[in-house]
Amino acid sequence: MATIDRKIVMNRSLSLLQNASKADVRTEPYSHIVVDSALPDDLYEELSRSFPSQYFMGIFSGVWKASLLRKNNNKIQALERQQTRMEEQGEDLAGQLKGKQADQREFESRIRTATESL
To answer: d(Cα 111, Cα 26) in Å, to the nearest integer?
Structure first.
């Protein structure tokens, strides 16, 4: 991959809007500006020449996608573990609730028995 000749860049005061005009402003489908020949031709050619190849970008893209998939898989696995823990906690709470309900029924039965015998 080629590098950019710094002399071409360093000896200039550059702005992407230096050649812009009111006619370059667009409002549809959203506000934006389109500037043809925003860069001097020699700088554009230098940038174009030094830009990474499609092959390199394809490899980078593949590595990046694999990295994202790995991260997403790790997140999914963590969420599945969390869901399992929450389900187990829910089962524990349901069991505790059933026990408390049974205790409540037993207490109410004893109260009824005690009040009937009065």
So the answer is: 81
- What would the pLDDT profile of 51-104 be if each residue is shown by its tens digit? 777 666 666 677 777 888 888 888 999 999 999 999 999 998 998 999 999 999
Largest CA distance in the chain: 107
CA-based radius of gyration for the chain? 35
Which tokens in the block code for residue 21?
Answer: 């005009």
Residue 20: burial class (beta carbons within 10 Å; 0-12, 13-18, 19+): middle
Is the backbone of residue 61 left (phi > 0), alpha (psi -120 to 50) or beta? alpha
The 10s digit of each residue's pLDDT in 2-49 is: 565 666 566 567 788 888 899 999 999 999 999 988 888 888 888 888
Q: What is the rounded distance in angstroms from the CA atom of residue 48 to the CA atom of residue 42?
A: 10
Taking the C-alpha atoms of residue 66 and residue 51, their distance in angstroms, rounded to an integer, is: 23
Between β-strands 32-33 and 25-26, what pairing exists: parallel, antiparallel or unpaired?
Answer: antiparallel
